[in-house]
Specification:
Oligomer: single chain
Protein name: ATP/GTP-binding protein
Shape: extended
Structural class: mainly beta
Number of helices: 1
Radius of gyration: 19 Å
Strand order of the largest sheet: 1-2-5-6
Number of strands: 6
Distance between the termini: 79 Å
């Protein structure tokens, strides 16, 4: 008798070939469409608006854009997942030059 093979069960891919689950999230800053981007599908560098750091290729993250129905590709933003969850607790990030006073 040959040994039993454990086969991994994989979900069926939807037409179009990718797992793009889009959901709508309501928050104090409005209603947003949010889509998860798996690391295998992340092929470019993006800058997270929450921490102002680069999201390198291969890192899972999410894409969010306003759910008002008028958003286009220019309105989409790529976020680290923790930065997106903390967006309402953070103040706006102020860009300063190297010689600018830190406080005042």
């Amino acid at each position: 008798m040959s040994p039993r093979k454990n086969r991994r069960v994989t979900p069926q891919r939807p037409p179009g070939g990718s797992f793009r689950e889009q959901q709508t999230e309501e928050g104090p800053d409005g209603e947003w469409n949010v889509r998860q981007v798996p690391g295998a599908n992340a092929t470019k560098h993006y800058r997270c608006p929450g921490c102002d750091q680069l999201i390198p290729p291969g890192v899972a993250h999410l894409v969010a854009w306003p759910a008002d129905g008028f958003g286009d590709a220019d309105d989409r933003r790529h976020w680290h997942r923790p930065c997106w969850q903390a967006r309402t607790r953070r103040g706006p990030r102020v860009q300063r030059t190297r010689d600018a006073p830190r406080y005042g």
